[in-house]
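Hello again, I could really use a second opinion on something today. I've dropped the whole record in just underneath, so have a look.
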Amino acid sequence: MVRRFIQSDDALVGIIVTILIIGLFLVVTAIIESVYVPQWLEEKEADHMHVVSYQFAQLKHSLDILSVIEQKNAISVYITLGTAEIPIFGSGRTYDYLDILSDECVVEISNDTDSYSFPLGTVAFSSKNSYYVDQSYIYEAGALILSQSDANVLNGKPLFSVTNYTNVTFSIINVSGLEGKKYAGGYGTYSFYMEYLDSDYYSMEDFRFINITTNYKNAWQIFFNSTTLKYSALTYDITDTANGISVEFSASLGNLILKATDISAQIAPGWIE
């Protein structure tokens, strides 16, 4: 009889220990999932944004090269969308978007008698992070822009130079997407192919205005207030408009030479003629 009680007590202790171990495991797992996993995922998403920043810098560099050399060449770069889930926990996968957008930005130059207007296609990356702040990288008219919440900054300047203090050369790039190859969304690394098409030059004497239709006014204001213009002899005022900014030059100016380059682009493996 005593032996039976001892065996029953041993079994009861075993059950209690098992329950405690399971409870402890569940508590530890809950703490990890609620405290540490979000921290890991935020760091993972932040690292991914750094990768995309570098990839878009490479994209801008490639487009600038195609514009400068003016030859029928093609270049490709890789853009990574989304982040992988954390092993074991199976959470944390995110999905991003990459678009080639038509006529998203307009550059207009004018003097007292003439004006030229250039609708331009842009390239835009948009993140859908779970923990780290969402960011967008945009390439428009030769500028590389970082947009975050309601703010945006300039990450890379367009090709713009001032010679003899008042003569301006401004290069803008139009990215046109191939039908059916303008969009990618989800998770994975995608090829972004670019091919030079042609360039046209426009010359304007005594130019007065450069108007930019854009969703990223602050980034363009940063550019026009940069050292490129500050230390030239150009006198100008920047005004916010309903759809962008207007730069009015007040001094007697020389020539503005605007170079407009067309680049064909597509997202996805394989080049389609």
